[in-house]
Amino acid sequence: MPINIPNDLPAKDILESEKIFAIAASDASRQDIRPLRLIILNLMPKKIETETQILRLISKSPLQVVIDFLMVRSHESKNTSSDHLLKFYEFFDQVKDRYYDGMIITGAPVEHLAYEDVDYWQELTEIMDWSRSHVYSTLHICWGAQAALYHHYHIPKRLLPEKVFGIYPQRLCDEYDFLTNGFDEIHDTPHSRHTAIDEEALRQVRQLAVLSRSDTIGSNIIVTKDYRQIFLMGHFEYGKETLAQEYWRDVRLGKPIQIPYRYFPDDDPNKEPILTWRSHANLLYRNWLNYVYQMTPYAIETIELIQEPIGTSGKDAHGYAHAFRK
After folding, report:
1. Residue pair 106/43 in contact by the 8 Å Cβ criterion
2. 249 among annotated binding-site residues
3. Was 163 annotated as part of a binding site?
4. Where along the chain do its domains lie?
5. What is the structure's pLDDT at 200?
6. How far is it, in rounded angstroms, from Cα 113 to Cα 96?
7. Is 47 annotated as a binding residue?
8. What is the largest CA-CA distance in the chain?
9. 222 pairs with which residues across the strands?
């Protein structure tokens, strides 16, 4: 079943050129089902590129999904036209009375700042608190994941001596977990970040479980025991050329940047990179949407009645997630 997005959203033509069909709202309304409702809080500067990357993964589900886009009012986007934002995005006060099956909070290039120094931090925390009662499951990406872990669980971040930049192999902590069902025991994930969470602080939060991790760069996929919150430290949504574009951007700007790890063949940036994470990215988003579809109440407004308070006991963060489901 295709995703339901506006006909003139720039991502629509790109997806259709890749043989990914996006259904028109008029056609979707004739289908006698309740589609999943998702909202994407897009904090990335190049919003159209991020929209396309995320919609590409959402579209691989057999479910019909209706997408809303959200932006913060307290920050002015300088890399996306105001016409695009006004046409396709809404502010929090316009959506706060709605309920959603799922939400995605993207990363943002503000990791060099303390969380409280980010100009939209107060608004973001209000949205994250709202998501606990108005969204069944929220998926956080990279800085969005670090910010949510800090806000909800007081897990701090630390500045890394060298940027984590490239394609890093991750090992599953539980090969039978629902969210990573179908994953190989080792799976690649793109990373591009200057900070990491405090792993020792993570281990102290008994409600959180790590589903995959790397011995060199730490935890990769983190979840609450009920999957109401999912934290992705990397960028499964990245396209084949995304890291190359980041690399050459920094080279042109004269910034110190290392060649992305395990990305270019023979570490030669003049060679075309090989896409090695697509199947796992598709599986992750498909598993997430399938779980949300099966678990969200049909009367979506009753979500707030089943929220689980932060701090309930579970296994240690380094334990196996399946221990939560006796």
Report:
1. yes
2. yes
3. yes
4. 3-239+278-324, 240-274
5. 97
6. 27
7. no
8. 55
9. 210, 231
